[in-house]
Design goal:
By secondary structure, the protein is an all-alpha fold. Helix content is 72%, strand content 0%. It folds into 2 domains: 49 residues; 66 residues. α4 runs antiparallel to α5.
Length: 130
Amino acid sequence: MKKERLMKDVLQGLLMAAAVAAALPIPDLAFAQSTDLATSVSKLTGTELHSVPDIISAVFYIGGAALVGAGLLKLKTYAEAPHQNKLGEGVGRLSVGAGLLALPYVSTMVINSFGFGTAAASYQGFNPVS
């Protein structure tokens, strides 16, 4: 049992290290010999960080889908044996999973409504009453 837990922890650590390594920018930016900060920042924000929001959204979508699936399985076990399982565990996982699934959409909507995203904030003017 202890050996299985150790192997699971090692595998999770390796997967996390691989995910971090895949998300890091290209190594030539790290070893660049640029003299001013403005050039370094423009290189980094101009090309390298465009995929980060997509990666974060994918993590939220995958985590949300996993929690919704786990919540449905908990609700199934509750339906099979209600005296041994709690209903709140399944409902809680479903709620958190739904929140994670909706978070990228809601955050994009909020960012765009303040005019920071691709679409500027706008409003509809009222017509005068005649």
